[in-house]
């Protein structure tokens, strides 16, 4: 059979195909299939790799903007907070200034109301008929005194302070008003008040204050004095002097006249003493810590025996008396009220001469003293006994005030 098969001639028919061509066709189909399959696998892997890269890029792109946004949002949030803090600070400062301004306006309104009420009551009382407008004068001198100082007052009346008709003449012709300044006792209408009423009835030289007397209330008394005097008299200057100081009125007037055209002047013997921390000592300052470290000195201020302030400053004290702080020492208090204001401090050494022979030597040298006292006593030592002596040796002469031009 093998022989027969091997030698069998190719079958040919009308539609027959040679087995050789069938084999070639099969081999060609196999090769083509392998080629197509390999090509398909390569394309699929490329597509998958491209998709993977695309996904990675997409994820990376999504992640990066998120980070940037978070940073941007954090920066914006911090900026907003700082902006809000700054705006809040500005609002607080504006409110603080507004409140301060309102407090000053309120104080001025209260002062004006009190003044109007006082004038209304005086006008309604037929026993105290007074001119509605304030009397225009050169200066008002307030002599600070106490209930126990009757002898001191008499020593002044007998020496450098005019009395009776001369006191009224001094006001009319020279524009100089001099008054002893005193408040009332803790029990108004008591023995002390009646004694002063009787003394005033005799001499008519008191300015009574709505103030309770007491040594530790001198700052308050000084403040009320300036407010009361400014409401009663329209003066160019207001002077405060202790009742144990000798004064030459003509020389005081000449000093003030040199500064009459200036708006805000503070005249006195300027000093800067130590802040006393130790309790129990004279002039102890309970609020010493406000002046810095222990051993510091006060700011410059006029010594308390005698000083003068111009009308603008007296008006300022009057309008703001409810919010001006009072320290233990009245001269320190007054100096503190002018810190931060545009005030000219005038150091006038003739207002703090010593008692004889110091004031005598200065007068002989052509520098007569406006005021004399002893530093060791913060006034004339034993002033009741020595005021006449000081007046005789250091006084300008009883007629000097009438011949002095201002």
From TrEMBL:
GO terms under cellular component: Golgi membrane
InterPro entries, per database record: DUF4094 (IPR025298), Glyco_trans_31 (IPR002659)
Cofactor(s) this protein cannot do without: Mn(2+)
Record has Transcription regulation as a keyword: no
Transmembrane regions listed in the UniProt entry: 21-41
Location, primary (coarse class): Golgi
Keywords assigned by UniProt, alphabetized: Glycosyltransferase, Golgi apparatus, Manganese, Membrane, Signal-anchor, Transferase, Transmembrane, Transmembrane helix
GO MF: glycosyltransferase activity
Compartments where found: Golgi apparatus membrane
Enzyme class (EC, first level): transferase
EC number: 2.4.1.-
Top-rank taxon, per record: Eukaryota
A Pfam short name: Galactosyl_T
Residue intervals of the DUF4094 domain: 18-112
Membrane topology: Single-pass type II membrane protein
Pathway noted in the entry: Protein modification; protein glycosylation
Presence of the UniProt keyword Manganese in the record: yes
Family of this protein: Belongs to the glycosyltransferase 31 family.
Protein name (database record): Hexosyltransferase
Annotated organism of origin: Ilex paraguariensis (yerba mate)
């Amino acid at each position: 059979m093998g022989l027969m098969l091997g030698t069998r001639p190719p079958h040919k028919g009308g539609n027959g195909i040679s087995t050789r061509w069938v084999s070639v066709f099969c081999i060609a189909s196999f090769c083509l299939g392998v080629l197509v399959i390999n090509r398909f696998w390569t394309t699929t892997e490329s597509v998958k790799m491209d998709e993977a890269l695309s996904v990675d890029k997409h994820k990376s792109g999504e992640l990066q903007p998120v980070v940037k946004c978070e940073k941007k949002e954090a920066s914006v949030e911090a900026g907003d907070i700082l902006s809000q803090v700054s705006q809040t600070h500005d609002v607080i400062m504006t409110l603080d200034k507004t409140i301060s301004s309102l407090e000053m306006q309120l104080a001025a309104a209260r002062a004006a109301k009190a003044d109007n009420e006082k004038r209304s009551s005086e006008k309604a009382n037929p026993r105290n008929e007074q001119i509605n407008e304030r009397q225009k004068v050169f200066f008002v001198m307030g002599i600070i005194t106490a209930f126990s100082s009757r002898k001191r007052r008499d020593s002044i009346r007998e020496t450098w302070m005019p009395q009776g008709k001369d006191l009224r003449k001094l006001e009319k012709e020279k524009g100089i008003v001099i008054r002893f300044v005193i408040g009332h006792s803790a029990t108004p209408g008591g023995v002390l008040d009646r004694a002063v009423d009787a003394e005033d009835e005799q001499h008519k030289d008191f300015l009574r204050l709505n103030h309770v007397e007491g040594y530790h209330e001198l700052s308050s008394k000084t403040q009320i004095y300036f407010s009361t005097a400014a409401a009663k008299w329209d003066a160019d200057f207001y002077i405060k002097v202790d009742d144990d100081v000798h004064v030459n009125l003509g020389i005081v007037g000449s000093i003030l006249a040199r500064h009459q055209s200036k708006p805000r002047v503070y005249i006195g013997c300027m000093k800067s003493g130590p802040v006393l921390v130790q309790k129990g000592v004279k002039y102890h300052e309970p609020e010493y810590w406000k002046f810095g470290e222990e051993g510091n000195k006060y700011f410059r201020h006029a010594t308390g025996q005698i000083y003068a302030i111009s009308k603008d400053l007296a008006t300022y004290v009057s309008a703001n008396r409810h919010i001006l702080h009072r320290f233990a020492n009245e001269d320190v208090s007054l100096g503190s009220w002018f810190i931060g204001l545009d005030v000219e401090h005038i150091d006038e050494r003739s207002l703090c001469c010593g008692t004889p022979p110091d004031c005598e030597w200065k007068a002989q040298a052509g520098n007569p003293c406006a005021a004399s006292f002893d530093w060791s006593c913060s006034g004339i030592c034993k002033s009741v006994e020595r005021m006449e002596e000081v007046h005789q040796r250091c006084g300008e002469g009883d007629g000097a005030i009438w011949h002095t031009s201002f």
